[in-house]
Amino acid sequence: MILDNPRVKEIIARRHLHMCLECGKCSASCPRYISGKQYSPRMLAHKLIAEPQDRAYIENSVWDCLTCGQCQERCPSGVEFVQLILDMRRELAASQGLMGYRAHDGALHSWMRIMTSPDLKQNRTQWLSPELKTRTRGETAYFVGCAPYFDVFFAGLGVRTLDIAKDSVRLLNRLGVEPVVLEQERCCGHDLLWSGDQDNFTELCRLNYQEFKAAGVREIVVSCPECHSVLSQYLPQVVQGCDLKVTLLIDLARRAAEQGLLDFTPLEGVVTYQDPCRLGRQAGCLEAPRELLGRIPGLELKEMANHGLGALCCGNNSFINCDAYSKRHQVERLRQGLATGAGLLVTACPKCMIHLTCAMRDPHQDGPLQMKVRDLASLLADHIR
Amino acid sequence: MGAINLLGIACNWSPFACYNAAGQAGMELPPSFRLMRVMCIGRINQALILRAFEYGADGVILLECFDEDCRYGPGPEVGHTNVERVRRLLHFLGIGQERLLEKAFAANEKEALVRALWEFSEQIEELGPNPAKPRQERVAS
Lengths: 385, 141
Description:
The structure holds two protein chains of two kinds.
Chain A: H1 6-14, H2 25-29, H3 31-34, H4 41-50, H5 55-64, H6 70-74, H7 81-96, H8 107-114, E1 140-143, H9 147-153, H10 162-174, H11 190-193, H12 198-214, E2 219-222, H13 225-238, E3 245-248, H14 249-258, E4 269-274, H15 287-294, E5 299-301, H16 324-339, E6 344-347, H17 350-360, E7 372-375, H18 376-382
Parallel strand pairs in A: 1-2, 2-3, 4-5, 4-6, 6-7
Helix pairs in contact in A: 1-7, 4-5, 9-10, 10-18, 14-15, 16-17
Chain B: E1 6-11, H1 14-24, E2 33-38, H2 46-54, E3 59-65, H3 75-93, E4 100-105, H4 110-127
Parallel strand pairs in B: 1-2, 1-3, 3-4
Helix pairs in contact in B: 1-4
């Protein structure tokens, strides 16, 4: 019973839920709520504090959240709503086995759990070609993440996530870095963490840390915002004495561009930019992508109606609870993109790319939703002078 | 019982007719083989095949109808696409793509079906257990 559960009381206190004034700004800005779903962060806060006996409401709501952080951004009382959701998911998964409704029948979570096996000998670096200069040992590594797996699993969508990894290595080579690319790297575990599977998440962190240490890695460069969030924020929570430096590829590229080490060839046309939740609101990285785009001659960046800290989520997170409301929300986002007149939607997260491309394929929408989508790393790598 | 776990996923129509006929004829099957019957192999997606490996299967064989025999339309073609993709994922994971197989049968081919199961069983025995240790999910109540 949630009412008597001291761990839930502790979560409520730790995440400052008692500071809630019931002003409702969270729900008014929540993409789930706006899409018409019977989900409201404000109501969840109320239930947790005042009506904890309503288990059904609480248990559903905890899994309905996109964890995009919009509510937390707007909350005037400093309630850590996203962390509250994470803590509650861990609690409900551990105590009751709840895992949310998993999109794609949980295939992605399956391969992530398979990767917790210590004896696995993966063949995940076959995409490396001689023109991409990498090492097996060294101080700086590039973290590839799930890109090779997504590339196969989502082949039907035509989303080529592996290109992001190739283009990131090209960019790094151009910046004079020959990164370590690990053959036995595991998934960062983001989706296991955010679906409450703390044990398997911890195991992935531990195995990844071992691999980094064995290869002499001290700094990890990442292009995926979710990998960045996990490696910089959550891995040190579960690996004692973690001393890895985690750097975003776009921060590296921005610094190089500022020092005059990186120039770009022109791209004529209007583009718009989708802020990934883990990059924009959660890592505070809003300026670097825009500055880099601004350095491409001829490129005109037009912002969507909701952008920066107010950017709309791509509609799904950690591959759980994808539903008709996700779809409605994605269609709204694509319409915002099309309204800018841009011919290209740039994002910095492979999952934004997957989810928005998936939504474009609906033949029943009123009017076309098609937009070209590219990852920022790919766009930059293609325009290196 | 052998040390390996084999899972067969069979379409209800031609392959299951073969399986049933083989049973009635008293034909011997590999001891480590377990069968799951579905209405059509097109029902099986990438996730369900991966789940079998997550749960510790050492080999999975999809027993399906020939393309032109499908009762529903595109079932076997859906199966081919899924198998092709999951085989690539299994290769990445180091589990090995040879641990996933698909075979088509007509309704009167019980001997061919039994032979295919024995061949598959021998092949997996030779490979040994799946290197991915099973990690059962905690299932809701």
